[in-house]
Design a protein that fits this description.
The protein has helices spanning about 1-15, 30-50, 60-65, 70-80, 85-100. It has a domain at about 65-100. The chain is an all-alpha fold. This is Reverse transcriptase domain-containing protein.
């Protein structure tokens, strides 16, 4: 069921051009680390040119960890095309959301979040 949701969301994101090429987090072959490298490169270039640079760091990793699984699932179901998740599939999706648990192995936990907590 997870692959069905991922595929539907991916198709929607591609069709609607929701994710810009500058997006790094939660995209294939890019990570928070590649974003940090690109950001550092750009800001040091600006500083070398003598431009003023202000940087504000925002850390939303704790916010992502505290959002209820049920709230996220309900929003996915509402936003996803009803033809894709109609009838029995919608019921299966709700049942999956209530019973399935997601765990990230400790060795991959860092890949999910940008630096810092």
């Amino acid at each position: 069921m997870e692959f069905l949701i991922l595929e539907a969301i991916s198709i929607h994101m591609d069709d609607m051009k929701v994710i810009r090429s500058s997006q790094h987090g939660f995209t294939k072959r890019k990570s928070c680390l590649t974003n940090l490298i690109a950001f550092s490169d750009e800001t040091t270039t600006w500083m070398n040119e003598g431009r003023a640079v202000d940087i504000v760091y925002l850390n939303f990793s704790k916010a992502f960890r505290t959002v209820s699984h049920n709230i996220l699932t309900e929003r996915i179901i509402k936003k996803t095309d009803q033809a894709l998740l109609s009838g029995a599939k919608q019921k299966d999706e709700r049942q999956w959301a209530e019973t399935d648990t997601q765990e990230v192995p400790p060795e991959h936990e860092e890949e999910l979040y940008c630096a810092g907590d």
